[in-house]
Amino acid sequence: MQSNVSASPRLPCQSLPGPKHPLGAFIPNQPSPNFNQYVRDQGAMTDQLSRRQIREYQLYSRTSGKHVQVNGKRITATAEDGNKFAKLIVETDTFGSRVRIKGAESEKYICMSKRGKLIGKPNGKSKDCIFTEIVLENNYTAFQNARYEGWYMAFTRKGRPRKASRSRQNQREAHFIKRLYRGQLPFPNNAERQKQFEFVGSSSPTRRTRRTRAPRPRT
């Protein structure tokens, strides 16, 4: 006896569709956005939306032992602590670590020419007047120019600007310490560290030193 129920036809296997848009259109699978790349791209551009942060401090040169000063177009590292030309106004350019450095007295920005020379300019909007702050492992700070990558602000022992094309991040000439105006030098300055941990000997001998002291010969 044959059954009257016919076998249902088999449908070919099909892959499941992707996610469906509320309006009915299918959305293709897209890779997740690269947030790190977005941060790098935004950090390389001037931030026109956020409020700029302004700080005031001095820059102590590790090589010259003096402070960076902006005296007109001349940029040197020969100023003493509290010199009016050594007071710097630092403006943030992005939400990253790019800044503009201006002399508070001269109102000139520290910029870098195409020859690698530091000069003072009244307008600091160009890219050669923007520097990237790089905090080093030894707690010093280096300033790399935003236009000329690999060129750093650097000074010689006499406080003269060093040619940026010859400067490197690991050189002492490119190392600085941020210092408050007329303030104490923070670590890692060796001279200040020795003063902080200088031991003063006692004039009166202790009980232990009396025991270990050699007896005086009798006369």
Automatic annotation (TrEMBL):
Keyword Transmembrane helix: no
Compartments where found: Secreted
Swiss-Prot/TrEMBL GO biological process terms: cell differentiation; positive regulation of cell division
Basic residues bias (residue ranges): 207-219
Keyword entries, A-Z: Developmental protein, Differentiation, Growth factor, Mitogen, Secreted, Signal
InterPro entries: Fibroblast_GF_fam, IL1/FGF
Gene Ontology molecular function, alphabetical: growth factor activity
Gene Ontology cellular-component annotations: extracellular region
Stretches the record annotates as Disordered: 1-21, 191-219
Main location, first listed in the record: secreted
Domain of life: Eukaryota
Family statement drawn from the similarity comment of this UniProt entry: Belongs to the heparin-binding growth factors family.
PANTHER family cross-referenced by the UniProt entry: FIBROBLAST GROWTH FACTOR
Name by which UniProt lists this protein: Fibroblast growth factor
Species this protein is from: Accipiter nisus
